[in-house]
Design brief:
Radius of gyration: 24 Å
CATH class of the largest domain: Alpha Beta
Shape: globular
CATH architecture of the largest domain: 3-Layer(aba) Sandwich
CATH topology of the largest domain: Aminopeptidase
Distance between the termini: 39 Å
Structural class: alpha/beta
Oligomer: single chain
Helix content: 25-40%
Number of helices: 14
Length: 558
């Protein structure tokens, strides 16, 4: 079945005010495309079949997935995207810790011991067989943020070399009701993510970093921490084998943090309140941490799949579309003994969307700029395929105008809106507004910005490198039942099928809501592809400085 929607030309302006308010963007009027619902159905059905064994990188499931994508990209009219090849090798290493000691904390007034998994979890990003943290002085560093553009530095005045940073989760104003504050109020910034906190601790020279788990600001319970931080974890393979990272990164239960600070003559609640203020200074605790464990590691090479529709006028300017093809392989079996995590929603849907959009754009003819369709690997292991491409781009990032990400498209039926994850971050929002004027939908900000979903999918690897990226999900304001019904659909998925053997294809799915979203994606890609503008991040966004620096140094791009 081919779904065709007539363009509503009068509804789209040729230009629109930018999100920063200091320039006008060229937002061309473009016609709707022809999106094949049959393509979406067929690819999701096939990718999520048991034959693909859950699409784990390095398995027969990867081989089948890569072959399918190459075949469908070629049939869609794309060209190989990596200098004549359809794939890009992504070398990764998996590291697994074992034989953990207790976490031992000692000082003049107390000696404490904490049990692995029950009280703390820890990993090392270093490819070394043994980790030994011995008598490392502990320092409470608030939220562990160094953000010069916001006038904030939780490490000011302290030399962290060889020390252990004790860090609060999220960022300082997460309890704010609105979106105003030093760190965007209730909406989490990248500074609130655990990945940033570990990176910054390493930059500061810390030997270890321990994040204090608190369920509300973390947005998940200790059970999630325990399961996610146990067993093998994947990392990008690095020439220095991760030796610029801390010896150990981990989480401690809130009660453990309270006990440690009490032993240091401090109070967690008082220090947490102080850490919310701009004049906070790090607090040496006068006690030391010790921890040891063993590491085993294994290397493998997995693949990104890349197709390109070369632009007709400016082929050296690129619009990127991303979705991850991988899933978990096997996982704990359900009551019927099924242990294949099929990943139909997550993310066979987004992968199928790449192909359907490629077909539609190719049928309409190439826009002025080139369109890149990038199916990345190893998202479930930490966005590794996206990070590898962003670090080793086939198409230069300063020539990449912006991009769109598709991940886990829920089947809730027809909706009145689309959900914008990370709304207000860039001038891409203006292109979105114009596209929605044609589809008749509206943009709804994500309902839980404090959970930081913008920093959890593949587009983030590009945003971190300065490339403006949009992340849009199906709407929650359903035609049948409104927002209450939409939230029930979302909650039911994440409480049930998500990351389980029950994320399977259903022939009875209602695709109408997805098709409205697909129209939006198509219009965005087409409009960006024909525009002469280079949309940027808004002033003050954490990625603006990186983009500005790249553009200032660029001779061929932005």
């Amino acid at each position: 079945m081919i779904r065709t929607t007539l363009a509503l030309a009068a509804a789209t302006l040729l230009t629109a005010c930018s999100a920063t308010g200091d320039s006008a963007l060229d937002i061309p009027d473009v016609a709707m495309g022809e999106i094949s619902e049959d393509t979406l159905r067929d690819i999701v059905r096939e990718l999520s079949s048991d034959e693909f064994e859950g699409r784990m990188p390095g398995t027969i499931g990867e081989e089948k997935t890569v072959a399918l994508l190459i075949d469908r990209f070629e049939k869609a009219g794309l060209q190989p995207g990596n200098n004549g090849s359809w794939t890009q090798d992504v070398p990764i290493v998996t590291i697994e810790g074992s034989n953990f000691s207790t976490l031992r904390v000692g000082g003049p007034a107390a000696y404490l011991e904490f049990e692995p998994r029950k009280d703390f979890v820890a990993v090392s990003y270093r490819e070394v067989p043994e980790i030994s943290l011995e008598d490392s002085e502990m320092v409470f560093v608030g939220y562990g943020i160094n953000a010069p553009e916001r006038g904030w530095n939780d490490y000011e005045g302290v030399d962290m070399t060889g020390k252990t940073a004790v860090i609060l989760v999220n960022d300082p104003d997460y309890e704010t009701d609105g979106l105003e504050g030093n760190f965007n109020g209730r909406a989490m910034t990248y500074y609130g993510r655990w990945s940033y906190k570990y990176e910054e601790a390493a930059r500061q020279g810390a030997a270890a970093a321990l994040i204090v788990h608190d369920e509300f600001p973390a947005a998940y319970g200790w059970n999630v921490v325990e399961s996610s931080w146990s067993g093998p974890a994947g990392y990008a393979q690095r020439e220095n084998k991760g030796m610029d990272q801390t010896l150990a990164n981990g989480w401690i239960q809130k009660g453990v943090a309270e006990a440690i600070l009490t032993a240091a003559g401090q109070d967690l609640a008082e220090l947490t309140a102080a850490a919310k203020q701009k004049d906070f200074k790090p607090v040496p605790l006068g006690i030391a941490a010790s921890l040891s464990f063993e590491n085993s590691f294994e290397s493998l090479t997995t693949k990104n799949v890349i197709g390109v529709l070369p632009g007709s006028e400016r082929p050296d300017e690129y619009i990127i579309h991303t979705a991850h093809w991988d899933h978990l392989g096997t996982c704990p079996a359900d009551d019927e003994g099924d242990d294949i995590c099929n990943g139909a929603i997550d993310n066979a849907t987004g992968t199928a969307a790449l192909v359907a959009l490629a077909e539609a754009h190719s049928k309409a003819g190439a826009p002025d700029r080139s369109l890149v369709f990038l199916a990345v690997t190893a998202e479930e292991q930490g966005l590794l395929g996206a990070y590898h491409y962003a670090t080793n781009p086939v198409f230069p990032l300063d020539q990449t105008v912006g991009g769109l990400n598709m991940d886990a498209l829920l089947m809730g039926g027809p909706a009145k809106d689309v959900t914008v994850v990370g709304a207000g971050k860039s001038e891409l929002d203006d292109f979105l507004e114009a596209a929605l004027a044609q589809t008749g939908l509206v943009a709804t900000p994500e309902p839980t910005p404090e959970k930081g979903f913008y920093y959890r999918s593949d587009h983030f690897a590009f945003a971190k490198r300065g490339v403006p990226m949009l992340y849009i999900d199906p709407g929650l304001d359903l035609v049948d039942g409104g927002t209450e019904a939409g939230i029930k659909v979302q909650d039911a998925y994440y409480a049930g099928p998500y990351h389980s053997p029950n994320d399977e294809f259903d022939e009875n799915w209602d695709w109408s809501g997805i098709m409205g979203l697909m129209d939006t994606f198509y219009l965005l890609g087409r409009s960006l592809g024909n525009s002469t503008s280079w949309p940027n991040w808004v002033e003050g966004d954490e990625f603006r400085a990186t983009r500005d620096e790249d553009c200032a140094a660029s001779e061929a791009g932005c």
